Structure formats: structure tokens, C-alpha cells
Amino acid sequence: MKHIALSVVIATSLATGVASAVVSKDLAYPADNVSAADVANQNYFVNHFYSFDNYGITKKGKEITALILRAQDSNPLTITLERYLNNKPKAAGVNAQDLAVFRSGKLRGTSMLITDFSDQSKSQSYEIFIPSIRKVRRFAEPARDDAWGGSDFTFGDVTLRKPKHESHELLGKEKFAGCLGIMKDVKRNKYTQNAKIEADCSSDGKEVYKLKSTAKDANWWYDNRISYIDTKNFSDYRTEYFKAGNHIKTIDRSWVSANLDDPRASYWGYWYGKTLTTGHETLAFIPSSSTKVNHKYKKRNLWSTSTLRKMPKKIK
User: Fold this and answer.
1) Which of 21, 45, 256, 300 is the most buried (most CB within 10 A)?
2) Is residue 294 within 8 Å of 265, Cβ to Cβ?
3) What CATH number should be reported for the domain whose range is 2-20+33-309?
4) Residue 73: pLDDT band by 50, 70, 90 thresholds?
5) pTM value?
6) How far is Cα 265 from Cα 258, in angstroms, rounded to an integer?
7) CA triplet 105, 111, 117: central angle to 5 degrees?
């Protein structure tokens, strides 16, 4: 059961970023002359979708989010999922809720609800419905530096790292050069046969902050990382990780504007990560057609334990 739960958390975290109460959801768009801390906080705001009341990646026709893992010179493993983030929970003391539903692979039928509390001293709550036993189980929050089995990420990369875990330094501004990375020559299956998996070049030439973030924890898995963050919307296009002066990993993020009044209102098109020492790569590909922002769901109390127990085939 522990192995199943870990697999669920791994897969969910790769395609989600549940909010953590360290940066206010009311954080104002900054004026000129921002500091390194300002850039880090604004980027956190963007990655946790604080511009939205809710954000969903659903299934529309044959299009669904695909999580693709591939070791060097090997065929990829594909998992599909839906995800629903609530940044306006009704329950007192709750900062955000995140519901994930797995639709294919060994995790098919598994669902998970993550609850993030307003009290920063409280760990997140993980409730997981395990179809093999038809029960909901609770699990502890994972450690930030836990490596995720077959992926190229840690839990801190996309869910648990907060600006306070690092010291930040602005290295100036520059023009982002070239396209984002992408998994090439993907062996297609029924979940990816119609997906338009190609490199995003829209960031080429954009002005970015170059932010150096150094881990405060001693003997951390990386010493520092360099992030290239858009000076207008604060989305991070690329993060490069270094250990003992060596470039060990890169994560690229493709962003799509939600066309709202807040210039920070964007969502992910895809994540691509590669570990340079092994050649292993991971792609979380999210079709724009399946994305919902500030949607009014028909199901009452969608983000609840009862939803896990009675997971519908389709959420509207």
C-alpha cells in the first residue's frame, strides 16, 4: 500500500503544484525596482495559480494530460490524469485544495485530495482513494528532497519548495534565447497520438530576470539554481540546477496566457525535465483545450473525501 501511495504522489506532483501558505494570494503586482525576494515571491504566486479562483486540467474528447517518463534509449511510460485546484475553499483555515484523478495505467481509478492549510506550521493533508481496496487512506506529506522513482523531479521542485527555503540574488536582466526543451521522438500511443508535442518558442527574445537561488539546507541535492523569469508576467521559462559547479538538471516550463486582467494569470502548457548525468527525461503535457479557469462545477463540494469515494467518470 505504501508503494501505491508513493506512486500516486509522484505522478500527481509532476503535473500539479498545490499551493502552500507562504506567499499571499492577495500579493499585488509589483512596481518598478523589484528585489530578488520580490521576483521569487511573484514567481511562486504564478506557479500556484493565485490569479485564479480555480484551475482544472480535464479530459476533452481524446485530449487529456499525459505524464511521460523515459529513460535514455528506452520506450516511455505514459500516465494520464485530471486535476482540479481550488484556491477559494469554503472551509475555515484551508488555504487551497487539489484533487487529482488518474485515468490510465497502473494508477487507473486512483484519486487523491491534497489539502493545504492557512497555518504554515501544519503539514498538508494527503487523502488517497485506493481502488484495489476501495478505501480512502491518509498519508504524511513527503519530504522536499525526496526523489520520485522514475521521474526527473523532487517534491520540492513543483509542490513543497517555498521562497524561504533559499536565499535569492538577482543577476540582472537578459533576453531569453531559443526554444524551450521538449521530449523528442515520442513513441505515440492512444493518449498521445493526437497531441501536438513540439517545442515552445514563444519565450525566444523575451526579457527575463536571471535569479540565482541558493539552498539554505546544508548538503542539499543542489547547491544553487538559476531561473529565467519573465519580467512582465513572472513565469519561469527555465531553471538550471548546479552541484559543485556542475550543471546537473534542467526544467523548462511552457506557459499559456489565460487572458485575464492580471498579467500573471497563466497556466502550464507543458513541463520538460532532463537529468544531465543520466539522460533521463520527463514530460508533463497539458492540452490547452482541456484547461478550465474559474469554472463553475455542477458537483457540489467537489473537493471532499466523499468525492474520492464516489469518483465520477466525468467531472463537469
Assistant:
1) 45
2) no
3) 2.50.20.10
4) confident
5) 0.89
6) 6
7) 140
